């Protein structure tokens, strides 16, 4: 549909490519024109860090705050105990309360880089849904909330339907997740005046449930907005790379590796990613995204610097760029490369080069490392590595060695 937004936030969402769908464009627009409106996104605490796949949602919250509204980061201390079944083939492993609290503590570090928390009108709030979910009385909940949900309708949602169509088990525990998420929205509206829930387009059914429940139980008017589920132009899911998830916490992925992920963006994705993940003006994003040939590399460096600067700070972005330049242009080692430090006991009588490639994160398995060597994609100290049976001993590590996978991924190995 063609809609001409009045509010700054909806305008930004539309022009920068964040918007997949909205439950009521005009209603949301008019609500946001009042300013200071709370909106939320929920994040389940299934790991100690979020990864790049969540960055589009974090940027939506950042823009909500930058346009004078109040972002709420809802931590799923309660819902993580159940697990979201949306578009998953199997049930998530259940975590205990301590593991969930540890994960929430790790995730909090990321949000503070993007949002300003405090008590002001547009300051962000961090809320844990365990506040209201942990104390629910099951029979009261069934009577007061469960009666508003139609099983027929719940079965029709694509996230459930796709699982059942593939004859994959969907536990009753998971089936309850969408009811709990709907209840979250109602509670946030009742407690904090929250008018908006955002999420990826796979959350559409859950969001609509929350809107319906809020209207039925407390006669509240709330809205939903979804972002597209992002894949790269070559069809890969955002947030994953050859060496695993692209984590946002620096203790799980170094700023250099994070920078390098964005520097390796496919040409066709540069303009789109600049709009989504940076705050550069839209016309500048389009200009950089239209560059061709060797010029597009400068745009990729700008992309990597802008995104790394937002998360890890401008100094980390500058250091990563300088390290990359030293490694790629001058054939040097670079001070900020990912480094694997081995002890004498790790090394023993020697360790195979295949194991080193895996341990340094340049390959996900021994099989992948051997294939890398067989296809002439591995290098040792910038020289082609052709012997998959090579053993590295203490003598070989008397000074650090550099391993490379292709032209753009490198790691140091040293003896501690």
Automatic annotation (TrEMBL):
Pfam families: tRNA-synt_1b. ATP binds at residue 240. It is found in: Cytoplasm. Keywords: Aminoacyl-tRNA synthetase, ATP-binding, Cytoplasm, Ligase, Nucleotide-binding, Protein biosynthesis, RNA-binding. One of its GO terms (molecular function) is tyrosine-tRNA ligase activity. A motif ('KMSKS' region) lies at residues 237-241. L-tyrosine binds at residues 40, 177, 181. This is Tyrosine--tRNA ligase.
């Amino acid at each position: 549909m063609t809609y001409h937004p009045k509010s700054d936030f909806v305008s930004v969402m539309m022009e920068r490519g964040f918007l997949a769908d909205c439950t009521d464009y005009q209603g949301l627009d008019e609500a946001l024109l009042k300013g200071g409106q709370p909106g939320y996104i929920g994040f389940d605490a299934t790991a100690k860090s979020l990864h790049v796949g969540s960055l589009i949602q974090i940027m939506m919250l950042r823009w909500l705050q930058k346009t004078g509204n109040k972002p709420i980061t809802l931590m799923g201390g309660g819902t993580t105990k159940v697990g979201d079944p949306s578009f998953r083939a199997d049930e998530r492993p259940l975590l205990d309360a301590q593991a969930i609290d540890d994960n929430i503590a790790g995730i909090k570090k990321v949000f503070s880089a993007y949002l300003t928390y405090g008590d002001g009108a547009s300051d962000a709030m961090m809320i844990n849904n365990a506040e209201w979910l942990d104390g629910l009385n099951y029979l009261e909940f069934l009577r007061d909330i469960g009666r508003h949900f139609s099983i027929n309708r719940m079965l029709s949602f694509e996230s459930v339907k796709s699982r059942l169509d593939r004859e994959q088990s969907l536990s009753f525990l998971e089936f309850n997740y969408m009811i709990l998420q709907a209840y979250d929205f109602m509670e946030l509206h009742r407690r904090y005046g929250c008018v908006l829930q955002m999420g990826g387009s796979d959350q559409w059914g859950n969001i609509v449930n929350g809107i319906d429940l809020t209207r039925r139980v407390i006669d509240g008017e709330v809205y939903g907005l979804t972002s597209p589920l992002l894949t790269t132009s070559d069809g890969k899911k955002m947030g994953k790379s050859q060496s695993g998830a692209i984590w946002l916490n620096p203790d799980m992925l170094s700023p250099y590796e994070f920078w390098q992920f964005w520097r390796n963006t496919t040409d066709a994705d540069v303009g789109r990613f600049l709009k989504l993940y940076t705050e550069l003006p839209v016309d500048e994003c389009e200009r950089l995204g239209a560059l061709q040939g060797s010029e597009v590399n400068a745009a990729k460096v700008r992309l990597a610097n802008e995104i790394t600067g937002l998360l890890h700070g401008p100094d980390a972005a500058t250091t990563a760029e300088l390290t990359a330049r030293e490694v790629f242009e001058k054939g040097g080692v670079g001070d900020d490369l990912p480094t694997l430090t081995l002890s004498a006991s790790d090394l023993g009588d020697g360790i195979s080069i295949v194991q080193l490639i895996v341990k340094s994160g340049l390959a996900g398995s021994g099989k992948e490392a051997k294939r890398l060597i067989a296809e002439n994609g591995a290098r040792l100290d910038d020289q082609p590595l052709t012997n998959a049976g090579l053993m590295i001993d203490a003598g070989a590590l008397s000074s650090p060695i550099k391993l490379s996978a292709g032209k753009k991924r490198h790691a140091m190995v040293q003896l501690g």
